[in-house]
Amino acid sequence: MKGLRRFVRSDSWTNRPDRRITRQVFATGRADPLYDYKAAFQTAVEQVKGEGRYRVFADLKRVRGQFPRAVRRREDGSEQDVIVWCSNDYLGMGQHPAVIGAMRAELEAAGAGAGGTRNISGTTRSAVDLEAELAAWHRKEAALLFTSGYVANEATLTTLQRLLPGLIVFSDSLNHASMIAGIRNGGGERHIYAHNDLEHLEALLAAAPADAPKLVAFESVYSMDGDIADLGGTIALARRYDALTYLDEVHAVGLYGETGAGVAERDGVLDGIDIVECTLGKAVGVMGGYIAADAVIVDAVRSWASGFIFTTSLPPALTAGALASVRWLKAHPELRAAHQQRAATLKARFAAAGLPVMPSESHIVPVFVGDPVHTRMISDLLLEEHGVYVQPINYPTVPRGTERLRFTPSPDHDDAMMDDLVAAMDRLWTHCNVARLPAVA
Ligand code: PLP
Question: What is the pTM of this model?
Fold first, then answer.
């Protein structure tokens, strides 16, 4: 009773911004609204449209066993066969019989949902087994699952700042939005170093108090440009200044290294990474995210991170599917070789056709357009006239003026598909005169 009275309507309760919003929402039923909510939302959408970066999602039906083919439904309800050229299911594992079989079996055995947060009742056998498998993959003592890679980054980076008071974070300027969100939410001191610029990183590290706790946060494969960080160089610097290393291998896990543990494995520096963060939604083909690190780090994050504690855990079928996928990926380096070969072939073919393929050291094949409206238009024409599905990549995913098409060929994209794609792109660039379209106001 005492507790209840304390909670009801104190000034601090009603003055909280979220409570004020609640009262305003109730006010929308008034005949004379005090605030035009609808207009505010419409203005926000119109702004995006005016900048030519309004996003339209293709309505696609994936057909099991047919990857990368899919069936698109047009607005009029008619259907079209398309080839998906922009999936982050990089190896087609989302369609793999081993993964589907494991998911189906676990669904039958354990049911649909996890039943709660990990703390309440959501820990299932396949989640525990998956964490052990992931820890071993990255040669770490422990791993911790999250509901997505985004949540893993956001929750961990926020929590590290709570766990290490005074932590100074050094973050690569092109780090993913989820890392930026986590670093910002932590509220501590942060410094942004120029992308992949180790001289700049060193200058910032050297300027910080020597005895302050420090963390260098960076990615291995940068997914929009396709470049790869200098892991060895970054680790050496971090060691010199006694900083922890936090590496996002979201676009590398499953794809690089002898067993697919990522660029850190490929470069022989697994031990130099203190905390690795990955997704289960891209090369692994399912969904979810995780960190792997020393047991004490994982235990501390597990005990303190809101984004882990207060959310329903991944369903058992999903963790079982991810486990089957990881085991498959570990044992099949030939998939990774085929993947690299396909990416190299597409880059070479685009370049030979005179298309502005951007320099990329990885499996990502970006083609520069440099204008949001043109990028959207090319993407629409590729889809409608050629059955090629590639989403336009606009701000805020990439800086304004660097809009592009981003191709992600998989081992299943065969030569005939590439012939069709290159011919379609060549035709568009030649006949539409893309580079010289009138500038958009
Ligand atoms: N980190 C990077 C670099 C990403 O590109 C993404 C997603 O695209 C994420 C993290 C988030 O991963 P997830 O899609 O599992 O939320």
Answer: 0.90
